[in-house]
Design a protein that fits this description.
180 residues, alpha+beta, N-terminal domain of TfIIb, 2 domains, two-stranded antiparallel sheet, binds zinc ion
């Protein structure tokens, strides 16, 4: 009885397990980044319906790394990748079809076309107005679980700069190099 090692070993094992859980729960197992906590309902709103049963009582985090395929990871080890979601995730997708605002359905292509047509886009203003009217639902509509405006402004800024550069280059006649 007195030589039973498990009695003294038990607390140490418990502490080790707790430490390991604490170290891994905030960190994405694939990219090593620290994700942002998201609510369970956000995960439920985005994973494919055939995977809903896998969404349990774990604490979930969203991995924001553009090159990492994991979108959600739970502190119990459950992971959902971009293929497990119903929609494209803004930071993990490219091109005109990717959503930049999930609440009102704006895509990168919408912003690009508006900028090409009129040199600027009113999309951020429209989203801001709707947000002020408190009709947005970013915490569940956006897979990242946060307001999309920061991302929208970032995309619009890049598209505007690309448009400006493209416009400037077309203003220079092709034969201009010979004028020197
Ligand atoms: Zn990751």
């Amino acid at each position: 009885m007195s030589d039973c090692c498990s009695v003294s070993g038990q607390p140490t094992t418990t502490v080790l397990n707790e430490d390991r859980t604490a170290a891994t729960s905030a960190t994405c197992v694939r990219c090593g980044g620290v994700g942002r906590s998201v609510e369970r309902k956000t995960v439920l709103h985005h994973v494919r319906h055939e995977l809903l049963d896998r969404v349990n009582g774990e604490g979930y985090r969203f991995c924001p790394d553009p090159s990492c395929s994991i979108v959600y990871y739970g502190d119990g080890g459950t992971r959902f990748t971009t293929n497990d979601l119903r929609e494209l995730v803004t930071v993990k997708a490219n091109g005109d079809e990717r959503p930049i605002c999930y609440c009102f359905g704006f895509t990168e292509g919408d912003a690009r076309r508006e900028i090409a047509r009129q040199g600027s886009t009113a999309i951020p203003v429209r989203i801001t107005q709707l947000t002020k009217a408190e009709v947005c639902a970013c915490e569940v509509r956006n897979p990242a679980g946060v307001c999309c405006l920061g991302q929208v402004n970032q995309v619009v800024k890049r598209l505007s700069e690309e448009h400006k550069t493209a416009s400037e280059s077309t203003l220079v006649p092709a034969h201009d190099c010979c004028a020197r």
